[in-house]
Amino acid sequence: MEVLGHRGSRTPGPENTLEAVDAALRAGADGVELDVRRSADGDLVCVHDARLPRLGGRAVIRRSTSELASRGIPLLTEMLDVWDGRGRLILEIKNQPGQPDFDAPRERTARALIELLRARGLPGSSVAGAHLDQATAPAPGAPSDVDPQLAAGAPPGPGAPFANGALSANGAPSAPGSAGGSAGESNGSSSTGNPAPASQSVSGITVSSFDWFAIEAIRDAGLGVATAFLTMPRMSVSGGVAYARSAGHTELHAHVSAVLGVADAVPRARRAGLRLVTWTVTDPATAIELRDAGVDGVICDDPVGVGQALRRP
Predict the structure, then answer these.
(1) Each residue of 105-146: pLDDT tens digit?
(2) How far apart, in whole angstroms, are the C-alpha atoms of residue 17 and residue 65?
(3) Beta-carbon-side half-sphere exposure of residue 119 (alpha carbons within 13 Å)
């Protein structure tokens, strides 16, 4: 199971910093996850919150790149330099309704990221889409079996927050071949013939977001970058799988509460040809439980502590 540092590493932190990324990777983490927003100058920076007390409560999108740098907020280009291809880098595009930089479906942050990655010639994931069963998986951009906005209870229209919708574990529509199964199926090929995702660590860059317009823009850019649908705690794995599979994404990044104790979570992802990664794991015991359930990766606050726990006999 992959161990991925949340925001580089929140323990000891500080999160979303060059130091946190370097420390996590030097300590043996398989990769790190970072948050991406835009400055007032249009540059991509790494910071989680849309507004920060250290900025006087003003929005990140309304502050210059130089001012953000003076407050300890790094450029994404600096993060790419310190990462330097060591393992995996997950870039979460922050674009949520109600926040000052929300701009779906125009997706300025996603398009700026496309330009940056293209300019640097960075490769995507070494297994991006390789595990999908081409005979059954829809092509990228193909119509979904389920309208994401309606499935999630979100109002239709641009920017409706699918990830914020509430789908029950039993009542969510599922993608073709993703009916519930036993937890015992999670470590092998499914009964539908779809191969289980690769269990080895993934290298390169993966882009994730709660905003499906953002990851679809990345998917359609032809960068060879893997894309992952990130879901809110209230969304069931079945609902996330239905969208991610139909849209041609590589992974589902589900909240830990949607996976723990849900017997068919891993089998559903397996049958859809999706890798299943959970966020955010805050203690080693939870990581061990998720590993035993067959989860492919965990985004965790303390990648060093989690990694040590998983290596113990």
Answers:
(1) 999 999 999 999 999 988 665 544 444 333 334 444 433 333
(2) 15
(3) 8
Supply φ then ψ for residue 142, to 5 degrees: -70, 150
Per the CB < 8 A criterion, the answer to whether 94 and 201 are in contact is no
- Among residues 262, 260, 294, 296, which one has the least CA distance to residue 276? 296
HSE-CB of 61 using CA atoms within 13 angstroms: 12
Structure tokens at 273: 């040809």
Is pTM beyond 0.70 here?
yes
* Residue 180 tokens, joined: 């519930």
